[in-house]
Amino acid sequence: MRLRALPNMLPEPPQTAYNRVMKQVIFTADDFGLCTEVNEAVERAHTGGVLSAASLMVAAPAALDAIARAKRLPSLKVGLHLTLVDGRPLLPPSEIPSLVDARGLFSADLVAAGMRWFFSPAARRDLKKEIRAQFEAFRDTGLALDHVNAHNHMHLHPTVLGMIIDLTSAFGVTAVRLPAEPPQPGLALWLALMRRRLRAAGLRHNDVLVGLAHSGHITEARVLSALDRLQPGVSEFYFHPATASTPALEANAPGYDRLGELHALTSRPVAHRLKALGLTPSGFSDLKPS
Question: Which end of the chain is more exposed for a tag (fewer CB within 10 A), N or C?
């Protein structure tokens, strides 16, 4: 059931040059290229809403359609959404046998995949080949690389993160998503390690990822509530919008309210709240230094 926007009962925070600079927001759509319904939603949310960035799945079925749309939308910032679990690889399965099942698909078991990457030299070799291939495919699009993240946030895995960092100079990586939304006591050490490694590599990152606790259900009411509680720093809001729910999308992420998230991205109250706060959604490449 879609949540309705709640009336704003909180006073607007005072507007100063300081908090306008210190609070920065990025509104990102993941799964760009998954299907035309997702691609249509990305275009609609950017041209008629507040969406500022999208994360491209280069091996997904509608990737070519997504690339064509992105080239028509030069103000849309596009990043690479590495797909290493729960999907189809870019390389032929015969080239990365330790990563795929009998159907040639990545494992949907995130824990098992992560353990394999840790302990299997063969898996790490195949993983490195697949990650490089996806970076090369993105470079071949001719799009500027705004950021890097991974499907199901698997770039939090130290092995994957290390491989991304190793490719920064070769592919012009300047920013990586930090999947942090406090409180996350079980991930605190992993996130601290990731933050340290990103900073040591000179890579930009967000401070908070808004929506982890309600992934697939970032409705208008939740966006407005999060904007009212925004803290100084870079807050990335991430979404999974689509113009229609399809059996394939439901199988990909059961229960996701993709239409509700599209509504949030094209919501007039959300646009007005951002304006009142002096905030303009940007890409990672637009971030001002803290």
Answer: N
Dump strand ranges (E) for 147-281.
148-150, 208-210, 233-239
Asked if residues 150 and 83 have their Cβ atoms less than 8 Å apart, the reply is yes
CA-CA distance, 241 to 42, in Å (whole number)? 7
Question: Structural domain of residue 240, as residue ranges?
Answer: 17-80+144-286
From CA 279, how far away is CA 265, in angstroms rounded? 15
Query: How confident is the model over 254-271, as pLDDT tens digits?
Result: 999 999 999 999 999 999
pLDDT of 8 strictly over 80: no
Is 8 inside a domain boundary? no
Beta-sheet pairing, 233-239 with 23-32: parallel
Backbone phi and psi for residue 111, each to the nearest 5 degrees, phi listed first: -65, -45
pTM, full prediction:
0.91
Report how many domains make up the chain.
Answer: 1
